[in-house]
Amino acid sequence: MTTGTLTLAKALNAGLRRALAEDGKVVLMGEDIGRLGGVYRVTDGLQAEFGPRRVMDTPLAESGILGTAVGLAYRGYRPVCEIQFDGFVYPAFDQIVSQLAKMHARTNGDVRLPITIRIPVGGGIGAAEHHSESPEAYFAHTAGIRVVSVSNPQDACTMLRQAIACDDPVVFFEPKRRYHVKAEVDDAVPLDEALPMGAARVARPGDDVTLVAFGGMTGVALDAAEAAAEEGVSLEVVDLRSLSPIDYETVTASVRRTGRIVITHEGPREAGLASEIAAVVTERCFPYLEAAPARVTGHDIPYPPAKLERHMLPDLDRVLDGVDRVLGRRVVHA
Amino acid sequence: MLQLLTETGTRVPSDDYDPLIADVDGDALAALYEDMVVIRRIDTEATALQRQGELALWPPLLGQEAAQIGCGRALDPDDFVFSSYRENGIAYCRGVAPLDLVRVWRGVTASGWNPYEVNMATPQVIIGAQSLHATGYALGLQNDGVAAAAVACFGDGAMSEGDVSEAMVFASTFGAPVVFFCQNNQYAISEPVSVQTTVPPAERPAGYGIPSIRVDGNDVLAVLAAVRAALARAHRGEGPSFIEAVTYRMGPHTTADDPTRYRDPAELETWAQRDPVSRLRTHLETIGAMPPELETRIAQAADRVAAELRSGLVALGDPPADVLFAHVYAEPHPELERRRDEYLRYLDSFLPDPGAEEGAR
Description:
The complex is a heterodimer of chains A (about 325) and B (about 350). With about 325 residues, chain A is α/β, with parallel strands linked by helices.
């Protein structure tokens, strides 16, 4: 058991090490994950410990990584694939949405593909083109796969172990700007005692407005709640954790108390998760709503160059602006 | 190009490949012939069933019987096949029931059989995607230390897909026990193979470091020998191989296709002279292994299979609506269950339809 203060990246490493040690069918696949330990060092030391057949440096072919993972899973393995950066996942799109996502359904449950796809995600690190994307909506739109996004080291470790143990395919988003966040981590939490992977978590209780965030935006949301509290506004921050399925029980229970909801994410607004959550909350909580749901998201543009990304990423002020909108404190320009 | 049986049914000796088929005596040849006759009969029946409205679509294999039976009968039980939608002859050899070949084309299921019961995945429609699945499965076999191989079946059109290229990269660099079995049937729907490649498909694998061979795909003996050689190599842990079986799709791409728009009738006639079934029949007659009573028995067997296929197919009912949601996830999914229940309640809100089929909710 590793109990100690770990960065989110090290917590992922601890989770992978435990999964490799506990189940001989777990194999890691990806570009530069072996000798180098991954470009973010998430797999650091694992190839030396478990060997090159358990921790495989693959050719530079994302469809190849996912497609061969499908074959390995067919044979009873539990592949954990690393896609080096969010923007590199698209060459694997067919293997994920047409093969992986559909296999259990199309074989009437005969073939299970317990594959975890780890993807460093999102912006805020001043990265090059194609290194700051938020592609969660594509995957959340696809039936047959589960999608999660972690925000803190303990969730990173436990939810990665849960994802690997899950018999469904899981797209596992790791927000890059949270990789160096540190916290106490227990890497041996019994998975059946942990909060289920599909459950959201109330990261900060509050009464006036429900603020839904996930991944890299969770830290911003908590900062916003702190700032709002100084002005006498109580925000309830829900860290979504699971993006497919979404834990609507937790979200709607909060909204029924607060009557107001703000949803924030980095990715573009159009057909994004905030839109879906706003729609479901409106359908299920309409009599309880005091204001129309507000979305605080990235713009509907290609992800901008580093010196402009502060305009793309919702910051504390934009989140609080959304809070003001649902509180009727600000004129809404529709 | 490897050929052990000429177009006129004459046996050609081969120092390299004859030892691989030394066990194929007259009876074994007759059994291969029976397989080819039966699968042609299944194929013809399925085509007719589509024309009669019992199947939504059917991808005929007419002309490719030798390629598929030669490959299918070369396999060991532990080998695992990942194929496209046209390899019904290989599936038949794996033990897939004829009715299970056609369920998916009636539209009552997305998969006709359990892949693990016959060691063959159900047909892949995305061109070339299964080549990676075979390669990954082969990596698993390699990890497990099992003397078995994965077989990736695809056509000449798939040679242009990135997945096939990536599969050959992975197979080569990891030395995976996979056999790439390419049936070059000369067409990808309307596009001749010259649109995909200016060299024979068998010349590509060299660039990946994979040995390859070009065989007469209408010669069941040549295909059997070549696939046995490739499998033996994989079983010995010597890595991947590539086989190009040169054949011809005598029918349309599927029953929805009209090859008269793009194919010269003279070309069809040329390939008809190379017919795989009549070639083997001529050879069997030459060596005295085709007595009239055997011919009659095989014809009756084929008719029986076709009749069973037809009666089984027309008796298939439509599945109930709750099947839609049943296997989307392996583990519980309360949100989807909620949405399923909403839809089933909606369906139940209708008055019963007096004409509705029993069970077709």
